[in-house]
Amino acid sequence: MRNSFEDLRNIIDGLKEDFEEFYEKDNKAAGTRIKKGMQSLKNTAQEIKMEVQEQMR
Fold this sequence. Notes:
There is one protein chain. The protein has one domain (2-56). It has helices at 2-25, 28-56. Helix 1 runs antiparallel to helix 2. Helices cover 93% and strands 0% of the residues. By secondary structure, it is an all-alpha fold. The mean pLDDT is 94.
């Protein structure tokens, strides 16, 4: 579980610069990277959810 949390943290940390570029500099390529990163974040969160549910049984 610890690695999963670190994965979430790494995804979020990696997106910080892209968010700044997209919202402050109107960089469309950064927006594409944000969408990709958010999908990765969603998938990782789903995996964590499944791990937690499995351990609760």
